[in-house]
Amino acid sequence: MPAYVDVVVPVYNEEAALPGSIERLTEFLAGHLHSSWRVTIADNASTDGTGAVSRELSTTYPNVHYYYLPQKGRGRALRAAWLESDADIVSYMDVDLSTDLSHFPQLVEALESGYDVAVGSRLSRDSQVTRAFKREFISRSYNVLIKSLFFTPFPDAQCGFKALTRQAAQAIIPGIENNNWFFDTELLIIAAKRGYRIKSVPVKWDDDPTSTVNITSTAMENIGGLLRLRFGGIPDVRGPGG
User: Fold this and answer.
1) What is the pTM of this model?
2) pLDDT in tens, 121-133
3) What is the 3-state secondary structure (H, E, C) of 114-141?
4) Sign of the CA dihedral with 3 first, then 33, 40, and 238 last
5) Helical pair 18-32 and 104-112, crossing angle rounded to 10 deg
6) How much is the CA Rg of the chain, to the nearest whole Å?
7) What residues have CB less than 8 Å from 239, skipping those under 6 apart?
8) Is 66 helix (H, G, I), strand (E, B) or coil?
């Protein structure tokens, strides 16, 4: 029996991007995903018209739901939406849909075949990536640092294109301390070190030139998180057989 899939789109002040992204996403899922699905817009304390736009979208599209959190933080939005979801598979993608949607069914199929976590990878040999040299260099350096510190098997911790079984999410997420950008990396490191099976899927990915992510502050947050896990220890969450 096909799994029920919850696709979470975390947003903060995305009133302009949401209508086009949700239209494109729902059309793709309806035409290409064999599973039952819903889209959850997880709004982490937007101050623009994101709430009004999201509520309108949730009435226009029956499979779209709106979830509001009064505090900022992409990780916080994913934590709340995933832990409250009743879907068999929880997932997320960035609102800009930089990762080619054609790869999403591959994430679902990997989980249905026995993997616990499935992630898009921009750094695999077969990936097709378009982005500036500076961002590419920073991303590769960061992932080399992760491997050097934790000997993890996944090539790309930061791609905004991930999926987990509900069982894995319920076990791993309570052990994650970060509520912002390091959330993804912390999730994958905990999963890898506690024995969860991770599938990396090479993807086609195009950089969003309008991204407002602050590279310097995000890098400092990530490095701090890596040092915390390296010297403070990996949380003792329940393993996949627990």
Assistant:
1) 0.93
2) 999 989 998 877 7
3) CCCEEEEECCCCCCEEECCHHHHHHHHH
4) positive
5) 50
6) 17
7) 171, 194, 195, 196
8) strand
- The sign of the dihedral angle between the CA atoms of 146, 72, 94, 134 is negative
DSSP three-state, residue 93: strand
Return the SS3 of 29.
helix
Instruction: Indicate which residues carry an active-site annotation.
Output: 184
Q: What is the pLDDT of residues 74-119, one digit of tens each?
A: 999 999 999 999 999 999 999 999 999 999 999 999 999 999 999 9
| Cβ-contact 82, 90 below 8 angstroms | yes
Give the pair of three-digit tokens for residue 220.
């400092």
| Cα 82 to the center of its chain, rounded Å | 11
Sign of CA dihedral 25, 67, 220, 215: positive
Return the structure tokens found at 63. 């499979």
- Token pair, residue 65, equals 């739901």
18 and 101 in contact (C-beta within 8 Å)?
Answer: no
Q: How far from each other are the two terminal CA atoms of the chain, in whole angstroms?
A: 24
